[in-house]
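Cross-posting from the modeling subforum.

Setting up a comparison between two proteins and wanted a second pair of eyes on the formatting. Protein 1 (sequence, then structure tokens):
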Amino acid sequence: MANKQLRRLLDLPGIQALENKLLMNTRAGAEDFGAFDRECQELSRDLFGIDRTDTLYFLPDDVNWDELSDSEREAFASASDAHEAQFVASAMDWDEDRVAHLEEFGWDLTDDRGHPLRVCKYFCRQVESVAKGIAGTAPNVDEVSAKSWGEQMALEARKFKTGKR
């Protein structure tokens, strides 16, 4: 991967804020998992156009599992297994393994020290989906840079105003 520029998840708007939440309160995900998970899913939808749910396999709406024959059930189970087999990173036990796997697809999910992001497990499935072209889209780097710059300027302005009082 030395020749290829990696897309850095941490550079996308909103990721650092979520990373900070987990850094400052390692139990943030455990104590209020629902709220934190919703925040991750909203950001995922903003960044990639999908959230984790969009990467899951679902039976078509018009299919009733109870009315299927054994062979039809096997076919859907096989389709589900094939779909899930595309998502290698989320099935891994360790963030280090997820990071190494997603690096092969051009994504960097590490912090400034080279350690896996704490939000890795919340975003790895969507990143892999985008990287493999399954669903979602990668954020436009120029758009993201402009948005990040704007957010940084707004933050600096708030700090300046606070200091003037």
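Protein 2 (same layout):
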Amino acid sequence: MGQMIRSRKTIWAFCKDPGGANAVVPVVKYLRRLGHRVDFYCDGRPARKILELAGISYIVYSSARAIINRPERPSLIITSMNSGGGLGYETAKLLRKEKCFYPLVLISDFWGLRDIDTKIEVRPDYVCVSDRIGREVALKTWPKLGRDRVFITGYPALDKYKNFKTAAVAKKTRARLKIDSDLPTVLFCGQLNYSGRALRELMKALGELDQRVNLIARPHPRMRRDAAKEWKIWQKTLGDFRSGKLINGARYKI
């Protein structure tokens, strides 16, 4: 894939949601360090906050049409998978309708390519996935893609933890959360779908095992808004916890 970006022409990168931003930001940083010009388009407010905290410059456009009306054309298009599409998909689709074909690279930000949307009309030229399951899902979704065009890269956002000082951070975290017992500590981080029910199953298992723990329960930031049913189950389940010490992760900012 390195051959695609030897040109010094502009690379267009896109993200919409926080997960996509976390996946694409390290890639944009790396490409810029190599000397490539990368125009980074972001059409989601929560994602923009991530870019700003990372010190990444970005461009705001209201539509794909406005982007392709620019006189410049990219040498490469990179986009996060983005639930429900986004500017990256729409821009690539418009360019291809006008018979302008530029390599399109999709970067997944979820295990097993869980964020794939089979309704998307644009077939990518390359896909970067987190794991082997993701590769198989991509090949099944786009049979003509070819195994040599699906790369298992892991999750780029986790690269920053390569030199993570585990012991020091664990000590600091335990102090901040006031965890002073020798009980096992369990961190449960929810997504959106089924998270309340998954937490309820965890509670049930702890009860049946008669296992007391320090439970750190951290809901998805958008659960209350985007998964109201699961949020109600989550809240009720926390209220029923009797298997040790409960730390409500929602009360702590990351």
